[in-house]
Amino acid sequence: MLTVENLSASYGAVRALDSVSLTAAPGEITAVLGANGAGKTTLLRAVSGLVRPTDGSISLAGRDLRRVSTEDLPALGLAQVPEGRGVLAELTVEENLRLGALGAGGRATASRLRRIYELFPVLDERKSGLAHVLSGGERQMLVIGRALLSRPKVLLLDEPSLGLAPRIVTQIFGLLRGLVRDEGLAVVLVEQNAHSALSIADHGVVLNLGEVVVRRDAAELVADDDLRHAYLGF
Ligand code: ATP
C-alpha cells in the first residue's frame, strides 16, 4: 500500500501541492484528475523523489519513501511510467523491455517476458524491430510493459492516454484493469481524460491548484452530475 499524507511541494514561490493525501491499495486503481497545472505530475514526481516535498509523508508498505532515492524505488516495488512514452528508439522492442528489469536490479526472466507478451501480443510480434517504428499506442504499451518487468507492487502512470485515439485508449485501459485484477497491482493513474480514467478506476481524486477538492469512489463521481460538470468536463 502506498500512502501519501499531507504532502506539499513548491517550485520557488509557486505552491504546486498543498497538503495532498492519497492511498493506492493492492488490486485498485486510484485516478488523479484535474486541469492543466493542477499539480498531478508534481504529485507523481514527489512520490518518485524527483521533486523534494516541503512537508508531508510518503510511505510504501510502511517504509518512508522520502528517505529512498529514485533509483532504488523499483527494487522496493514502485515503478513509474512518466508522461511522454520515452523509449530508446535505436534499441529493439525487447531490448527496451529488458531495461525495465535492469532498473530493479534483476534480470528479465523468460517467464516475465512471456507474461508481458501475453498481455501485449503486438509487442511480441514486434519484439525484434526497432522501437522507433512503433505507433503511439504501441509505445505506450512498451513503456507500461517495461515498467511491469520489474514486478512492481505499485505502478504510477502519468497521462497514458494523451494523444491516443479513443479506441486505443479503451484497449490499453482495459488491459490495465485486467492486470490490476490479476496481479493485485496498486495503480495511481494521473489523467486529464477523466471520462476514460474513471471508467476503470476504483477511486477518483480531483486536484485543483494543488489541493484535493474532491475524493470519491469512481462510480459515485461519475454519477454526480454537479461534480462532473464542475471539475471533470464531461
Ligand atoms: P499538466 O497536466 O499540465 O502536466 P499537472 O496537473 O500535472 O498539469 P503540474 O505539472 O504538477 O500540474 O504543475 C503544477 C504547478 O506547478 C503549475 O502551476 C505549474 O506551472 C507549476 N510547475 C510545474 N513544473 C514546474 C517547474 N519545473 N518550475 C516551476 N513551476 C512548475
Automatic annotation (TrEMBL):
Give the record's family classification: Belongs to the ABC transporter superfamily.
Q: What is this protein called?
A: Branched-chain amino acid transport system ATP-binding protein
Q: Which Pfam families match?
A: ABC_tran (PF00005)
Q: Name one GO molecular function term.
A: branched-chain amino acid transmembrane transporter activity
Superkingdom to which the source organism belongs = Bacteria
Q: Which InterPro entries match?
A: AAA+_ATPase, ABC_transporter-like_ATP-bd, ABC_transporter-like_CS, BCAA_Transport_ATP-bd_LivF, P-loop_NTPase
Leader peptide range in chain numbering: none
The cross-references to CDD domains, in alphabetical order and at most eight, read: ABC_TM1139_LivF_branched
Which UniProt key words apply to this protein?
Answer: Amino-acid transport, ATP-binding, Nucleotide-binding, Transport
What positions does the domain ABC transporter occupy? Answer: 2-234
In terms of PROSITE patterns, this protein maps to: ABC_TRANSPORTER_1, ABC_TRANSPORTER_2
Gene Ontology biological process terms from the UniProt entry: L-amino acid transport
Give the organism, scientific name: Amycolatopsis umgeniensis
